């Protein structure tokens, strides 16, 4: 096994670990903020459900991983050896993701690692072959996911909250809270499972690209047949990353942006779970962070728009907007520098 492949695999697992550490807490943020689950219990549940989400969903439906693995091509290598340059490009893309996401975690901003991954891969590919290295057809799915997750998250959170208020209008608060305590715990587990299903598959797509450019796997049809050991390794790595925790992100998403009651936390979790499940089934790579935070915004707005701390929302939107050019530029520059050095 050559050193470039080792570096790519280590960086891939590093990014999966960081994703479990900084991104997975979004799935359980509302359940912690509404005191349905204690932080240590919620994180423990997220570890298990993230692990199962990566493993189970990939086994039955790996379309998200296929989309990511086909979004760019590193075959436009010019006078260089394709495999060598591809490894450099992948390493640069993964490095840009680690830098960007750790910085976001430090400042407590739940930026999207899914968008960072797509931006990093795109920037690295463009450093080799310009726009010709980008698969526009697959990139359209990313844009669709961006729009769908925003609209479904916000509108879904708004409508489901209004519906729940209407359905439980004659129920005592104490009885309703018992229902929503159980419901939110289940919905938070579903969010953690689907976080693994979405984000785990995205990074597995990159992992498989590293193996492919070293002739260790072959493409069949539109994508790869992902071996069970890859699923298990990526699942375990994400689970370990999640166990590290992420109270900064939990605080930003579940506590600072809007104050939630139990029924509102349930509404946000249910909305996000529905959106993530449908996106995973249809192979559309969406941001789990984007989906969850827009669902929380919709829930808060259903009460009154002033319930949402739009200052926090504005910071998140800036982070999302900057992710594509920021991460892409880091990857682009890194490819150019590494090609000179190596």
Automatic annotation (TrEMBL):
Keywords: Membrane, Transmembrane, Transmembrane helix, Transport. GO terms for cellular component: membrane. Pfam families: PHO4. GO terms for molecular function: phosphate transmembrane transporter activity. It is a multi-pass membrane protein. The chain crosses the membrane at residues 41-62, 82-108, 114-135, 142-168, 226-245, 266-284, 317-341. It is found in: Membrane. It comes from the Bacteria. One of its GO terms (biological process) is phosphate ion transmembrane transport. The keyword Transferase does not apply. This is Phosphate transporter. It comes from Enterococcus gallinarum. The lineage of its organism: Bacteria, Bacillati, Bacillota, Bacilli, Lactobacillales. The gene is pitA.
């Amino acid at each position: 096994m050559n050193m470039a492949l080792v570096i790519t695999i280590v960086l891939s697992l590093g990014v999966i670990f960081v994703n479990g550490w900084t991104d997975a807490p979004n799935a359980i943020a509302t359940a912690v903020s509404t005191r349905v689950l204690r932080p240590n219990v919620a994180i423990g549940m997220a570890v298990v459900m993230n692990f199962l989400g990566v493993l189970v969903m990939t086994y039955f439906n790996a379309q998200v991983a296929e989309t990511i693995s086909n979004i760019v091509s590193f075959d436009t290598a010019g006078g260089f050896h394709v495999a060598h340059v591809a490894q450099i490009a992948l390493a640069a893309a993964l490095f840009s993701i680690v830098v960007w996401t750790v910085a976001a975690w430090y400042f407590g901003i739940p930026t999207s690692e899914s968008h960072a991954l797509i931006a990093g891969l795109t920037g690295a590919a463009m450093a080799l072959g310009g726009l010709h290295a980008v698969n526009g057809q697959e990139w359209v799915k990313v844009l669709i996911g961006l729009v769908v997750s925003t609209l479904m998250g916000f509108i879904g959170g708004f409508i489901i909250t209004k519906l729940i208020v209407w359905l439980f209008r004659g129920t005592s608060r104490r009885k309703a809270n018992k229902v929503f305590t159980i419901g939110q715990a289940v919905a938070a587990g579903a969010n953690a499972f689907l976080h693994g299903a979405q984000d785990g598959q995205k990074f597995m797509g990159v992992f498989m690209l590293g193996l492919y450019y070293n002739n260790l796997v072959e493409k069949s049809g539109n994508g790869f047949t992902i071996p069970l050991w890859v699923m298990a390794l990526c699942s375990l790595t994400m689970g370990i990353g999640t166990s590290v925790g992420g109270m900064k992100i939990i605080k930003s998403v579940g506590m600072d942006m809007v104050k939630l009651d139990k029924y509102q936390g349930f509404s946000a979790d249910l909305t996000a779970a529905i959106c993530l499940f449908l996106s995973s089934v249809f192979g559309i790579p969406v941001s789990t962070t984007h989906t969850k935070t827009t669902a929380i915004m919709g829930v808060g707005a259903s009460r009154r728009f002033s319930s949402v701390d739009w200052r926090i929302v504005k910071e998140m939107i800036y982070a999302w907007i900057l992710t594509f050019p920021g991460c892409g530029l880091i990857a682009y520059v890194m490819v150019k520098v590494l090609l000179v050095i190596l």
